[in-house]
Amino acid sequence: MNHLAVAHRYFDGWNTHDAEVIAATFAPGGTYTDPTVADLDGEATGAYALSLVAAFPDLRFDLASLALTDDGSVAAQWVMRGTNTASFMGLPPTGREMSLPGADFITFAEDGIATVTGYFDSGKLPRDLGLDVIVQPATIGPWQLGVSSRAVARADVEPGAFSLTVLEARSDEEVQDTRDRSRAIATQLLDAPGFISFMGVTVGRRMYTITAWETPEAAQQLRTMPLHREAVARFFGSDVASNALTGIWTPWRVNGLLVRCEACGKMMRAALETCTGGAPLPHTTVW
To answer: Cα–Cα distance between 200 and 207 in angstroms, integer?
Structure first.
């Protein structure tokens, strides 16, 4: 068996987006591993390739080198390139191109690839897409840490109500699925009458959504939205969460926006429009 020829067929499978060609280069029991996945067999490796192609339809590997080593394995240096024109990691497409350098070390059995071990900077791809790469522990002493996201339709309207959901997911997979569905619902809300903004917060497996509305009545339209109705049906079925809390909250006291005068440095009420010294206050729309 020509090891270099098999390695070339393997990369050709990636570049032609052919999962069957990729799988066919592996020996029975052969596996693929990189910093994000481990011990995928040939068929799963082909499916993994197609999942990347779904997000990067022009995905390709530009080979910098492909060479036999003294023990008959193959070392490959490459740059993976592609443009993000579809959803990746549950996020909307960014339209940006990624350029990810890396290396694969390929060993062989008698009838195909035994192992592919890939090395690359797993933070490079999200950085290329303009995504934040956050490294933090799950807990520090009494503190649990998490992540958040926000979508704003209008920042110049004082909220008249907040709808709140608190949900305890049962697994990490359930957390990701719920986050994806929440983002999809929030995206649909951007054009809804009376919608102001959405914030989603995940701390461990505890998940919060806080949605700002112009009025409590505006929040009621969630009940008519197909994606939200589907999410509710999943919750009252057996698919989502071990417990949850929902409600609509109205403000008791809103102190109004404060803004710092650039002339005197004092914090003033934005509604005054001018400082007590006569200087105009900076315009702000942060509610």
So the answer is: 7
**How confident is the model at residue 184, as a pLDDT?**
87
Q: Which DSSP letter does residue 283 get?
A: P
Backbone φ/ψ region at 90: left (φ over 0), alpha (ψ -120 to 50), beta: left
Of 125, 135, 151, the C-alpha closest to 52 is: 125
Q: Is residue 73 part of a domain?
A: yes
- Between CA 52 and CA 19 the distance in angstroms is 11
CA 30/CA 118 separation, integer angstroms: 14
CA angle 207–211–217, rounded 5-degree value: 135
DSSP string, 133-164: -----SEETTEE-EEEEEEES-SSS--SEEEE
Report how many domains make up the chain.
Answer: 3
Range(s) of the domain holding residue 59 = 3-128
**What's the whole-number mean pLDDT along residues 67-90?**
92
CATH code, domain carrying 192: 3.30.70.100
**Is pLDDT at 52 greater than 90 in this prediction?**
yes
Nearest to 225 by CA among 189, 200, 190, 181: 189
Query: What's the Cα-to-Cα distance from 61 to each of 20, 183, 225, rounded to whole Å?
Result: 17, 31, 42
Which segment of 59-73, 114-128, 158-172, 220-234 scores lowest on mean pLDDT?
220-234
Q: DSSP code of 192?
A: S
